[in-house]
Design brief:
Elements (H helix, E strand, L loop, with lengths): L3 H12 L11 H10 L5 E5 L6 H15 L5 E6 L2 H17 L1 H7 L3 E5 L3 E5 L5 E8 L16 E5 L4 H4 L2 H15 L8 E6 L7 H6 L5 E4 L18 H13 L3 H9 L16 E2 L11 E7 L11 E8 L5 E9 L3 H15 L3 E5 L2 H17 L5 E4 L5 H4 L1 H8 L3 E3 L6 H10 L7 H15 L6 H13 L15
Parallel strand pairs: 1-7, 1-8, 2-5, 2-6, 6-7, 9-15, 10-13, 12-15, 13-14
Antiparallel strand pairs: 3-4, 4-5, 10-11, 11-12
Length: about 475
Amino acid sequence: MLDSPTIYGFVGSCLLSRFDDPAPIPEFHKELWEMCTSDEDRIAIAAPRGHSKSTSITLSYLLAVLLFRERQYAIIVSDTEGQAVQFLGDLKSELLDNENITAIFGKVTMLKDSETKIVCEFEDGHRFRVEAKGSEQKVRGLKWMSKRPDLLVCDDLENDEIVMNKERRAKFRNWFFKALIPAMSDRGKIIVVGTILHLDSVLERLLNDPHWYTARYRAHNEDFTELLWPERFNRERLERIRGNYLSQGMPEGYSQEYLNYPIDDTNAYFRRDDFRFYNLDDVPRERLSYYSAIDFAISSGERADYTVIVTVGVDEHNNMYIIDVNRGRWDAKEIIEEMFNTQVRYKPAIFAAESGMISKSLGPFLKEQMMQTGIFLNIEEMVPVKDKETRARGIQARIKQGTVYMNGEASWYPDFEQEMLRFPRDVHDDQVDALAWIGLLLNKVVVGQTAQEAEDEAWEEEFEDDWEFTGVCATTGY
């Protein structure tokens, strides 16, 4: 049975000398081969850019299992067909031009040779087939010689276009689990290797799935005292690469590509250093103006999301206090109950909601409930902004200005903080969405008077009729 030392020997004798500027094979490549040659049939690996994960798996491991005849029908899948074709081309080049492979395994003849597929035959008649596919291409019903694929090598399946949109992520996830995996044979093996682009990406989900055999690698630890591949990426080189990202204002790019965490705390959309906190006993709650907003998740396509109601209080200095964050997977009836509970408890002056969601889904039920209870909600329907980052700009600005205060002791705060710090690449963004409605709402609301302004206005109203008898005398000057 093929194992890691065998692949190590194969790479050293047949491939290493053909690589550009070859470096010693790192220990983590041996770990990758141990994973790939294990009895596990579902393997997911996240590794940094530039660390030859494609060379070690999509070229070296795949060549080895085909030449050692452990697999016969392989599919290379990448985010685009063009990328998969390039991987297939590298494989083909080794089969046709590598004299060491020919000397050890004999001549390999191409019975079929197209851009997206090859069929090869050894001198003794043994054959194998390799195809190149792009993400979300048709893979159902793939067969060759009455056999379904027995190996799927998925290399950089996802891209930013796929991961940065919730609907696209769901569509891709459906294709991966409902089309790609079922396309392989019962004894098939799937290996997914790539870089984490989003905390709700398929690769990130697989890494957290106990049914998958997984590994996550970083180019270095926090203080650079541990390096993944020191012979090729020493501290000086890594710091230079990071500096290039920083000079372009993209620290999150380095974190994503080299640390497999697609967010950089120093450049996050919401930064922890900007968070301000309040003590519940020190907040003049009776003098606050309250506002609530709701972000709905009631359609079948959003069944995995939460409906969230955020309530804030605003003082006379326009400081905002996040009083409550209430979220749950509620049906329509439960949503209405929670909205009325919020109205009774906090008496918000305005309840913000996305336009269309009320009239299309909950309007009749809300009106009936208001008539029955005598409790009326002043609902402000907000025009939806499709780009979530644009929608959240208002609240982002307030947080940066230090005028938003949070209750760090509240039961809802830990989940709220995590979602804020990971936005817009977290699994969920419903709490941020609800808070964003608050930000948009307050941009439309006139700020309340301070106590001094209210006192001045009362004085002016009281003496308005006698205004001609007050002030400076035009004759005497006093």
